[in-house]
Amino acid sequence: MSQPVQQNKMGVMPVHRLLISMALPMIISMLVQAMYNIVDSIYVAQINEEALSAVTVAFPIQNLMIAVGAGTGVGINALLSRSLGEGNHKEASRAANNGIFLAFLSFLAFLIFGLLATPFYVSTQTDNPVVADYATQYLQLCCGLSFGIFGQFVFERLLQATGKTFYTMITQGVGAVINIVLDPLFIFGGLGIPAMGVAGAAIATVFGQCVAMLMAILFNLRVNKEIHLSLRGFRPNGRTIRKIYAVGVPSVIMGSIASVMTFFFNIILRSMGPLGADSGIPVFGTYFKLQSFIFMPVFGLNNGMVPIVAFNYGAKKPDRIMKTIRISITYAMSIMLVGLLIFQLVPELLLTPFNLTAQTTAVAVPALRTISWSFVFAGFCIIITSVFQALSHGVLSLIVSVGRQLVVLVPVAYLLSLSGQINAVWWSFPIAELASLTLCIVFFIHLYRKEIRPLGTE
Q1: Residue 124 has pLDDT above 70, yes or no
Q2: CA nearest 154: which of 46, 253, 76, 211?
Q3: Containing domain of residue 105, as a range?
């Protein structure tokens, strides 16, 4: 029996064309995602600056949900792609069905957090009762209805792993557009819909995620013939779950570290007095929304690269692996260079839509210029850490992430905060990224010598 066309494509199509065909739909969809992230904050900022601060306070938990969903998806993607590369379609289908089960467990965990722990979490981040009320409303809705985001992640990863990234572009794009359209209606009211403020922003986000999830399910059932999805008689398979989490857990932890970093960074800013609490925190949140427009295309490139690297590792084709990595790094660093130039040259223009006060804008402009110097190294590091994950060495990605965000960034930010100068704190980002670059180079050289180069002799 001949192998599926999509499987052959990842093993034989010219690498440059293959990477473009796999990554371009994901880059487009990620750009749309970045756009709706920015638009979401712009709309919220029109309520008042406290609302923007509330979304920033909620960000670590939202990021944690993304980390759990995306990290589990990386594990599913890597196992599924590698199994297809080895011709093991039964294991690929088993990975898919167990991945759906893990997504459901993730939803239950955040549902419980949303119901029981949200008020306590918010109290650790702000003393402002208006910000606390906004943040609590927003988080409880996002957590309580998080089945949409987890379902979207897992079903989109099943499509990506089999080369059908065009369909994920559709699901992500439609979900993002729905969010953008519903945001002003739900936040400010209109067409018979009452104004719901910050809660309306959360409902619009969740609604878009649920629609994207349903579309991804439909596409998998209709076009994804490489895997068989069925819950009839399903029982969790411990061996498959361990394989998924062997790659996925380090990725989950790696993404979660960003939440931990943001949590402590907010506390550091809060400790710097009114300027840090009232201006520093919304500036930090605004930066993360803006930088997503630069980073999301690189993450889209990653989503196209990972199944190619994983497939060709299973098929023992080191030349295709290395060519994929080289091309990916070139594109990633080019994107980040463009981002650096924009942040350096026109930070005031980037900040205009966020309705910031004069005091907050005065903090934000040097913050964007300083933090963006980290972009110089970030493109390379993002690609290399994803290569570690694709080759089932997620623990190396974990070490890099821990080293960058917890061992370097947070302590350096704290030490710089002791100067009392909020502009100094932002230099912790370039310093941490330089440390990440060093670790990535050392680990990749080791991995190439031990794992990739020997494939050509087998």
Answers
A1: yes
A2: 76
A3: 5-457
